[in-house]
Model the fold of this input.
Amino acid sequence: MPEAADDDLAVRLAAAVGAGVASVRPLGAQHRWRMYRAELDDGRSAFVKAAAGPLGDLFGTEAAGLRWLGAADGAPVPEVYGHDATLLALAWVDTGRADAAAAERFGRDLARLHAAGADAFGAPWPGFIADLPLDNTAGTAWPAWYAERRIAPYLRRAVDAGDLSPADARPIERVMARIGDLAGPPVRPARIHGDCWSGNVLWSGGRGLLVDPAAHGGHPETDLVMLDLFGAPHLGRILAAYEEVTPLPGRASRIPLHQLHPLLVHVCLFGGGYRTAAVEAAEAALRAG
Done:
């Protein structure tokens, strides 16, 4: 059994995963939770995210998203060992570095994941990105859904917090008003990760595994833009392999539009340091359209 300071976590973890806990080692902290490696009495190793108290639906949403992504024959995800309102336990992944072959395989895996599809834009579970709420109310047409569910809530939040001025908001509002012209050809809902920046891709065994999803039915270019926005390794090979499976004509012209949501999220999370990037993405989207 772990030391006394971890006894409460060990008890909660054991109940969530249905196994005794041999040891717990802290790894660090992020947002409102701490991270651990746990060794279970049945021989499994677990990655654990745990909070001091309940975080509502946050960990349940992550578990549901991982299981939904994992049900597709696409990019793999770690097995969910268990969760409750205070923690999430996943299979431990020994990670390495991406090489060109792994990147190409990941591109093909991601295309197959997206092709598995979704019943609608949105999801049947409450959404979160980091620890911000994410409106997963279902929609049938991506342009309006993206404007209403992915741009407007974070624009309001950023303006109300003073991180964006009314002048900053105007080009973003113009994007929402013109969303039908800017969005490109109609798409069916894809099964997407939703927060697919490079830090949420673990490289192991020659593949890229997805973690920390904001999973929902969305536009496939959303995941590709996140990989681009924050510098995935071997990005060119990932994108080329993806488009071998699923071509996306005109994708490059729509990059600023898809960047707008994650940049607004970063404004809300980290303040005005992302203000210029968000405004410039809106202006570039308007020019591209």
